[in-house]
Batch of 2 targets.
Target 1
Amino acid sequence: MTRTVVWHAVLLFTIQLLATPPLPVQAAGDAGWMMRVESELFVNGKSEPVARSLTLFRNGVAWDFLELPAAADAGEELQLSEIVLHDPARERMVVVDPVRNLKTTVEAVRLERLGVSLAKWARGADDRLVRWAGGPDFDSGLEETDAGFELVGPRVKYAVAHTAAPSDDAAAAYRRFADTAILLRALLHPGGLPPFPRLALNRRLEAARAIPTEVTLEIEPKFGPIQGRPDRLRCVHKSHPRLLSSDLQRIDDAESQVAAAEPVELAAFVEQAAAKVE
């Protein structure tokens, strides 16, 4: 599996977001709690993850650290590939490429516009799965199970297991982070399904005052198995309502990296990111 296919897996799993109005920029009390979430992405039943992330929530912002294979071979050791500062109070995200020492800033309004354009495109598509994924109504396929939630559509099934969030503020902030992260991934690395099924699940999780512990996405290929393309993705999340001393140090280091990185326009940053995947 090449690094390009690893990105395909990440995108296929995460490009799910924003056709409804966004959440409030910052709910009262957001800054008063902390949480760490470790995530690992597995493909087609493999025992080793193809991607890993650590998300740290503190002082009303979230820091997301993404690790991908160090080389073109997805069997290579994972290394830090991207750092994202989610800053809802300033309605922006700062994305850092720590390898090339570059950064770019993405305004929240740009993601909102992307969500609108994705919805319009998906709802006019010929493929039944893409049209379904364009939304806006998923109620008929969304069910609560003993394990969590399931959402079933044409050739696709999402299954979500969850646990109670530390607080209502945490549930709302986690949903806001998840929504934003997913659409940001779509902007930086286009590909995958339209976003709206996962948005529906994110809303249901927040309503249940919960955060996910495991999310599985199964897709039946339209014309049979596609060589090298994943059809079952499983993301495991482990959360804890505290930060470790190493987490605080990592945030300090990330702040220094943001300050030191060279600012570039979004188009140049995306071009550099695409070059890394090739």
Target 2
Amino acid sequence: MSRTKVMNPPVSRFEASPSPLQVYLRFEQGILGTFSIIAVLLIWQGLSTGVFADWLSPLLGDQGASKLWIKPIFISSPTRVVAKTGEMMASGELWEHLSSSGISFILGSTIAIVVGIPLGLAIGWYRKLRYALEPFLLAYNATPQVVFIPLMIIWTGTGMATRVLIIATVTFIPLTMSAWTAVKTADPRLLKVAKSFCSSDYQRFRDIILPTSIPFLLSGLRLGIGRAMVGVVVGEIYAATSGVGYLINVSGSSFQTDSVFVGIAMIALFGLLLTALINSIEKRYAKWRPSGAAK
């Protein structure tokens, strides 16, 4: 018997092209995020320039509409902030502040990662070490780390060392706690099976603990970025003569609202970029993991 091969009809170019709804669903996150940012900027611009007050004055009256006009000294405006950013870039002032903050951020975060992650893994893996250090870590985690800033200034003075120490101090605790939690949530059945095959502590730690710890460590890094940003601003307010935090502090004291928003925008942009980097690493790890581990 001869087999007849069924041929599917060719798909036309118009049928193969995705519909607008499919395109929207594919890029929904980016589209909604972009529109929300644009909406906030337009509202901000309208409130700071009095556009809304002019539009609604026939309905609300001059006195009622004046409440929709916020003076630029309080909130500035997007156009003024962009102009001030360009001015500070051209003069080199912004680059000086960014370089100072960037160096202290990198050094402080590196110290926190190098100390916090191994410490958390060791505490979770070695029971006696956990019993010895757990009271101090819990007390430190429950205490606002900014209370130690006066002592740091007494110990190291004001300068780069103090800022790096402040950033490392406020950043290492979420890394440590995340690594500790990662070890505690490891599957005990896998550890028992590996131990029954006479695997060493190092092999169990390398083959079971570390792979299962990666999602927790990435979450800790995401939290640590936010803490490090706080450390940058607080450290430069108390113990610096340059940096984005210093720029925000001095500009706010002299009512230079444009410069304050420039500093805030730089901090927010830097934090978003680092968070996006962590998210991309997490997505790559999610693709690498076996399907059973991702559930």
